[in-house]
Specification:
Helix content is 35%, strand content 16%. By secondary structure, it is of the alpha/beta class. It has a single domain, classed as TIM Barrel (Alpha-Beta Barrel), CATH 3.20.20. The strands form three sheets. It has an eight-stranded parallel sheet with strand order 2-3-4-5-6-7-8-9. β6, α5 and β7 form a beta-alpha-beta unit. Bound molecules: N-carbamoyl-L-aspartate and zinc ion (ZN).
Length: 347
């Protein structure tokens, strides 16, 4: 028996689209499912100005498949020298929908990120005043801190002082992975929200090592323990508006994943909504799916939900797809957890 579900078209509130051949290869997967996406600015060089964001936005629009009206929502890569005036001017023309804080060295292409949060206080002051959200990669970079504790330590060292100094600043705690992170967001007010990825709903750190070392399960923040995953899962199906979908789909060519010093990032766009739907079904929470994928994030960012819908169907047999895409001369592999996928987009 086939089961179908129709929901308001989702948005992706955390997405890496890259550029050039890679952009052309991966964008159709996202544009097929999502109405809008918050597009991460960690290109090389990073998207740090209105001009760069506008040029990048045009390249994304040009790469859209025929007939698609997918809308990229641009973000600004925060550096030690970002100017508050530029941010204010950008906000006036809606050039940026968020400013992204990458602690320098925390993840892929974060070398130009912030070295000390004190350096960006004038920008944060302006953002608080105008209501522009700060999107946060919430991990400390201190090599003395265990990689599995970096999110929890970030809360104490960076987030908590930041919340005290800027209580009205809108903050998105991106790709939440830890119980500490989930508990923290639950304790806060409406100015503090979080995105949750499809892969963190499924993975634990065991998946990184099961049967051998698995670079395709490697992303940052790194997947954590069963207890952490349980907390993240609970938050996703809670129906609490502060938790919503951001896929963190982050494609890398296979040659960059299948090597020593493999890059962090999981490319999940093609099957993201299928796995999320499957997860909500497993949790008996399909009634909460639409809020998580299509309503809460839009509300936080000041948009109405999309006016179209999508329909997903549950198949009797696992969905069979080619688990890779071609990008120029490269191959990009699609996130494939150990669980077969039964849900797919049909309309
Ligand atoms: C992202 C990427 O590859 O750009 N990688 C990742 O592991 N999530 C960057 C990021 O969001 O941390
Ligand atoms: Zn990301």
């Amino acid at each position: 028996m086939n089961t179908e579900i129709t929901i308001i078209r989702p948005d992706d509130w955390h997405l890496h689209l890259r550029d050039g051949d890679m952009l052309a290869a991966v964008l159709p997967s996202t544009a097929k499912i999502y109405g809008r996406a918050i597009v991460m600015p960690n290109l090389i060089p990073p998207v740090t100005t209105v001009k760069l964001a506008e040029e990048y936005r045009k390249r994304i629009i040009d790469a859209r498949p025929e007939g698609s009206d997918f809308k990229p929502l641009m973000t600004c890569y925060l550096t030690d020298t970002t100017s508050p005036e530029e941010i204010k001017a950008a906000y006036a023309v809606k050039a940026f929908h968020a400013v992204k804080l990458f602690p320098a060295g925390a993840t892929t292409n974060s070398e130009s990120g912030v070295t000390d949060i004190a350096n960006v206080y004038p920008v944060l002051e302006t953002m608080q005043e105008i209501g522009l959200p700060l999107s946060v990669h919430g991990e400390v970079v201190d090599p003395e801190v265990d990689i599995f504790d970096r999110e929890a330590v970030f809360i104490n060292r960076v987030l908590e002082p930041l919340r005290k100094d800027f209580p009205e600043l809108k903050i998105v705690f991106e790709h939440l992975t830890s119980k500490e992170g989930v508990d923290y967001v639950f304790e806060q007010d409406k100015n503090m929200v979080a995105t949750i990825t499809p892969h963190h709903l499924y993975l634990t750190r065991n998946d990184l090592f099961s049967g051998g070392l698995n670079p395709y399960m490697y992303c940052l923040p790194i997947a954590k323990t069963f207890a952490d995953r349980k907390a993240v899962r609970k938050a996703a199906v809670s129906g609490d508006e502060r938790f919503f979908l951001g896929t963190d789909s982050a494609p890398h060519p296979a040659r960059i994943k299948e090597k020593s010093k493999a890059a962090a990032g999981i490319f999940n766009a093609p099957t993201s909504i299928g796995y999320v739907t499957q997860f909500f079904e497993e949790m008996n929470a399909l009634d909460k799916l639409e809020g998580f994928t299509s309503i809460y994030g839009a509300r936080f960012y000041g948009f109405s939900p999309n006016s179209s819908t999508i329909t997903l169907a549950k198949r009797d047999k696992p969905v069979e797809i080619d688990w890779q895409l071609k990008s120029g001369g490269d191959v990009v592999k699609i996130f494939k957890p150990g669980i077969p996928l039964y849900w797919e987009l049909v309309d």
